[in-house]
Amino acid sequence: MTVLILTGQEDVTADMVVMHLNAASVPVVRLDPADLTAGAALSGEYVHGSFHGHLSTGGRLVSIHGLRSIWVRRPGVPAARAAQPSAWLTEEASQALYGMLRGCTARWMNHPDAARRARHKPWQLRLAQRSGLPVPATLITTFPQAAREFAERFPDLVVKPVSGAHPQEPPRAVPTSRVAPDTDFSAVAYGPTLLQRRIAKRADIRLTAVGGTLMAARKETPADADPDEVDVRFATSDVPWRPAEVPPRVAAAVHTYLREAELAYGAFDFAEDADGTWWFLECNQSGQFGFIEVETGQPLARTIAEWLARPAPRDHEQTDGRHTVTP
Amino acid sequence: MTVLILTGQEDVTADMVVMHLNAASVPVVRLDPADLTAGAALSGEYVHGSFHGHLSTGGRLVSIHGLRSIWVRRPGVPAARAAQPSAWLTEEASQALYGMLRGCTARWMNHPDAARRARHKPWQLRLAQRSGLPVPATLITTFPQAAREFAERFPDLVVKPVSGAHPQEPPRAVPTSRVAPDTDFSAVAYGPTLLQRRIAKRADIRLTAVGGTLMAARKETPADADPDEVDVRFATSDVPWRPAEVPPRVAAAVHTYLREAELAYGAFDFAEDADGTWWFLECNQSGQFGFIEVETGQPLARTIAEWLARPAPRDHEQTDGRHTVTP
């Protein structure tokens, strides 16, 4: 049984995981969907009620039936490196590859449907509430009047994008920024705006979940930090990330979140306030972990490798030749 | 409790359903995501562990909590008609709208995740096999040698796109066509190709599923039909669609398919052979039904309206203020 990693060739984070899989003698195939039709190939046959499919890349042939797990790491755009790339070829190659893989019984980190749903920040906030995580008061609106009233109730505010990175090439992260309560909110009418009560934070928390394993890291906010430096990704602090204990209530809520979101991997960002409360900011289903592993020594790559190496669920095909549906 | 229909303004098929909902005095709001920020607006607030959201369009305001069902009919690209449209605004508006709607308890026809998955033809074929529907022998491949061997085993073949319509503007349907077994298959290496055993058909079958209700229509193939006219969408026959009985085995398999696919609506295409067997060709989760209703008199629009009008599942929020997760 083979582990399939969908990612580009330049991916040192994937290299870390592959190293652990190699050490455990677990077969791995690494495929970049961008290589399809030029370097990577696929074939699947539906005959007499059953399916037999294969992928080929780098001179290796792997049976789709023989996949134990699929790690969707940083896959390229399907067929992007074909001799004559086109939107049509990308669509055909995408449907062929992911359509075949979706029909197999391998375990996914993360399943494409769960990954796509998990990117919706409004959905994240609601699920976090329902899972029992504290969520800072938040408004997403195109009504200027709603923004004004919210700013009166919660004068210490930040603004951030609803969707995440700006879709330019390369994608540009848009920093979370403070916004003054007397701001002119009339431009809110021209695009959805996410306003959130600013948490006066004592530390940033990054909690990485791999299957049922939770590992938290904490980066203390310096006492003299500029309160306008809201976004840890853009902060100038050189305080390192340190391992942190996960409070049991947070752990229980995170497990609920992951189960409902059907995620095998998630990188949660929290802001820790002066009372020690961890406020949910977001959960990135494909968040980086290399920098956390380097600074804390937490064995994230090894834990991912162990999750990927677990056997696939049994195929529910029965020996009498009939098939039952596998969910 | 309101029915939300996501579609463009020019949609006579939606008009048919709205007419039935109006007749039953069920409140309906019709919103085109393309109108967001210019004509349509949204707002959602996450405070103290709960969510309150609203949509506004055409001067009407509707609570997201008060939606009983959401019909994703032919929604426009979010914010496409904004004063200054952009990829970024579309992404922000899409995440805001669908992110809020995904968090609510309304029933979907069809849920965006189920709809997206259901478009993958390789996945459809595998699920049809597993559900017990006869599937013509099919090969999807980028290996020319695999195509040649398949053509030797199944010399009477058709070729069709893996993904569906060509993504030009407006989308162009690519007809299914016959392919001679001595075809030069070397070009298969440049793009995934779907080859399928041609069913010598006696009729085309369109089975429309609305919730648990199945309605089939049959269009007989004229005895003198050109066997090269494989694709009913492009055929010149003026034989009308007529209502047909659904064989019990097909009905059971279709119910399994819909349950596993988590689809509330599906338009199945079958080819009926000389033995009366219905061969699964595809299931279009957003297939048109107006032409079937017009020719057969089957009450498809009314059945959809009835499905949409059913009450939403109860919100699992408890009266003590705690929240449990609703799946």
TrEMBL record, chains A, B:
Pfam families reported in the protein's UniProt record: ATPgraspMvdD
Domain MvdD-like pre-ATP grasp residues, every copy: 2-113
UniProt-listed NCBIfam families: GRASP_SAV_5884
Protein name: ATP-grasp ribosomal peptide maturase
Protein's organism: Streptomyces thermogriseus
Taxonomic lineage of the native organism: Bacteria, Bacillati, Actinomycetota, Actinomycetes, Kitasatosporales
Gene: tgmB_2
